[in-house]
Amino acid sequence: SGNCNHLDTAEFELPYWLMNFDVLREMFVDDRDDNASSQVTVLKDLIISSKKGKNPEMSSLITIDTPVFWDLNEVRAKMQFLDTEKISMPGTTPKEGPFYGKFTRFLVRLDGKLNDPRYGFMFRPKKYLQSVGLNDLLARMLGADGSAQVTILDLSGVPFDIVNTIVSLLARMTFDFNFYNPNRRDFPILLVFEEAHNYLPATGTTTSSARRTVERIAKEGRKYGVSIMVVSQRPVEVSETILSQCNNYVVLRLTNPLDQNYIKRLVPDTFSSLTEVLPSLRQGEALIVGESISMPLRVQIDFPNPEPDSSDIKFYEKWKQSESKTKIAEVVTRWWKQEKA
Predict the structure, then answer these.
(1) Cα distances (angstroms) measured from residue 336 to each of 11, 83, 114, 156, 162
(2) Pair 36, 26: CB distance under 8 Å
(3) Please, are residues 199 and 235 in contact by the beta-carbon 8 Å criterion?
(4) Which residue of 147, 168, 255, 267 has the fewest C-beta atoms within 10 A of its own C-beta?
C-alpha cells in the first residue's frame, strides 16, 4: 500500500558483509571444534585484510565490525589454501603447513551455506557488491527515501536456523544508524518483533545474538530514538530483560498459568490483581497497562478491515465435507518451488 513497503527475501538482499564478527563466528565456527580458536583468529585477520583491500580510501579507519564490503569467496579460497598447504624445502619431503587440516570442518559449514539457494539473498548478493550499497539498503529498509512510513520484512521464507542471525543484523543496523545520526531526534524508529519468542528467548535458554542486540536496544535505545514493540503468544519464553524495559503492555487473552504469572510480575503491584481477567478476555479484547494511560483499561479493539486470513479453520465442518479443494500435485509443485500459499 502507499504507506507500507513489503519486502521478502525473494526481492530483498541482506549481504553477508554487513554482519559483525560475533554473528559470523556464531554462524560458521563450532566452539566444540578443537581448532575453533585458530579458525576465529585466521578468519578475523583475513576479513580485515579483505575489507582494507576493497576499501583503500578508508583503510586506516576499518575495524572487524566496520560495515563495508569484503569478498567472501576470496577469504574462503585463502582458508582452503591454508587448510591444504604443504611447505617444501630443498632436499626434503613436503611438510604440512601450520594450519593443515584445521579449517576442514569450518569449510564444510561455510560451503553448506554458500551452496544452499535458500541463503542466496545473503551469501550470493547480486546488487550490493560495493560498500556504497549500504546507502540504498538503509533507505529502503528505513523508508528514508520517502517510499513508505512502515516497512515489513517478511522472514517466513528464511531457513529457521538463520532467523536469529537476520534479526540480530537488522536490529543492530537500525540502532547503529541512529547512533551515528546527528538528526536522530527528527528520525525516531520503532522496531516491531513479531513471534518474538522464536528468536528473543528467555535468558539462559540458548545463545542468541538477536537477544543480546535487542536487549541492548531495550536498555539504551530511547537515547538514540530507537524503540521496540515485542509481540508474542508466549511471553514466558521471551527475554525478561527485554519485556521489563517496556513501558506499556497490551495483553490479550492468556490461558496458560505460566504466562499469566509472568505478566503479573511485569506490571506494577497495584495493578497485578487485574491480570486475573486474562483467561476470560474475548476475541479482540485486551487489558492495557502502562505509562501511556492514567489507569489500566479493558478495551475492545476494532477488527481490521479487511480482516487478515488468520481466523481459525473450522475443522469439524471441513471434515464432514465429502470433497476437498486440495490438489496434491499442485501443493507438491509449490513445495518444490518454495512458493508459500
Answers:
(1) 19, 36, 20, 16, 20
(2) no
(3) no
(4) 255
Contact assessment for residue 213 and residue 172, using Cβ atoms and an 8 Å cutoff: yes
Q: Which residues lie below 8 Å from residue 226, measured CB to CB, with a gap of 6+?
A: 174, 175, 178, 188, 189, 191, 217
Whether residue 21 contacts residue 63, with contact meaning beta carbons closer than 8 Å, is answered with: no
Rg (CA), the chain: 24
209: left (phi over 0), alpha (psi -120 to 50) or beta: alpha
List, for residues 178-188, the tens digit of each pLDDT value: 999 999 999 99
pLDDT single digits (tens) 149-176? 899 998 887 888 888 889 999 999 999 9
Question: What is the separation of C-alpha 223 from the centre of its chain, rounded to a whole number of angstroms?
Answer: 22
Question: Strand order of the sheet with strand 248-251?
Answer: 248-251, 285-290, 297-300
**Cis bond before residue 125 (omega within 30° of 0):** no
Write down the domain spans for the chain: 247-341
